[in-house]
Amino acid sequence: MKYWRGSGGSALAELGPALIVATMVLLAIFGMIELINGVKINDSAAAEAVRVVAAGDPISAYSRAQIVVDHANQQSTAWGSTFKLVSITFNPANIIAQEAAMVPNGGMLTGNATVVTQLTFSPVGSGMAPVTINSQKSCPFSYNVPNTAGGVPVVSQ
Fold first, then answer.
1. Which residue has better confidence, 76 or 36?
2. How far apart are the first and last CA of the chain?
3. 156 found inside a domain
């Protein structure tokens, strides 16, 4: 008399590796979603940082932009993401010297501001090296250096 075994054991043997592969695929998909979310936040932070840089005194531009990047770090829901302010550049490059030359009589500064922010993304649980992505945004600016000399400005007729 022969006893036949059912095929239930072989199905279970195939299900184990399939679940491992499915888990790895899901982790990869979640990692990509987190990376895309981080890139969007980095672009938004760069755009907002250049806007606040262009909206005020060039001397205090770095501290205003750093506040925006700090806020992005606090509000980020992406696991393993950190944002950093890399650089602020002005065109013309000597804008700070131009502003200093206008004190105390004041005047108008114009040019372009460029901000570079950086996203460092470490995929959680993957053991992969961190991915670094930069975002660069530019914006024209104008700043009215205040007249600190006092008196009434002279208007030519």
1. 36
2. 121
3. no
